[in-house]
Here is the input.
Amino acid sequence: MLRRLFHRAAEELRRIYKAIAFFLPSSVLISLADEALRFRHRLNDAVRHRKAKANCDITPKIMSQAKDAAPLFREVLNRKTSWSNLQIPPCPVPSMLTQDEMRYYHYITRFYSGIGAVVEIGPWIGSSTYNIVSGLLNNSNFTDDKRLYVYDDFVWRTSWMDKWLTGTDIKSPDNLTSFQPLFDEMIQKFSTHIEAKAMKIFDSGDNSDVPWFTWEHGPVELCIIDCGRSLLLNEYWYNELEPHFIPDRTIIVMQDWQNFKNVPEVFSENTKIFTDSKQQHLDQIHELRNSGTATFIYRG
Here is the structure.
């Protein structure tokens, strides 16, 4: 019965589309197409949310190292999440992050067991780094010998970076110079827990003197990625790190994953295409409602 109703509705929609396409000007059709794309994204959001809700348990269990010792659950676009009410210290570093993302970094670091390294690629001037380390230091498994390994080409690009310092007392570095000294200054409070290196995952012409990213610190347990959205960029870091991932344990946080929802579509927003291409190897567990972040477990 429902299937017949659906087919009839689809036929009616096709007739309406033909009439609209014939009578309306192109500018209106483009606006309608954009609205249809937004509707499609909302439908797909609902599907991912329902699937996650029906399969919220993660196996094998990954347990929090906080006092509550709670397990990690699948939470996709939930209105109320396990980190929604988390109280976190203020972050003094100028940021592109939402408050929800900052809380999330304090939450996800609770699940660090110490069996592998923590890696961040693409920290900008250190807001995410600050929150990640702040969270890790509340975890007894992040012992004195542990470090957060941070990588960026650290090339300042005035065209899009300067605006994020507007309203602060921080002077923008000169265009195409290294901003690693600024990064070091911003995260100085946690400097003994961080090892930062200038390395690239893509040659953009303005970073030709920066060495290519390589990994030499053993197994990777937690990986935070914010370094670009093209397939080429993502394939580079993935191919370098994947041999060191721990099946059913490595957690990969991808900050701009939801940018595929941009309307109109942006051809270079390939992060979801990238994760989809890994099929069963990447299992989505989180999708933040108030940011572009999504998180995956590496299944091997």
The beta strands are 75-76, 117-121, 148-152, 194-198, 220-225, 251-254, 282-287, 294-298. The two ends are 42 Å apart (CA to CA). The longest strand covers residues 220-225.
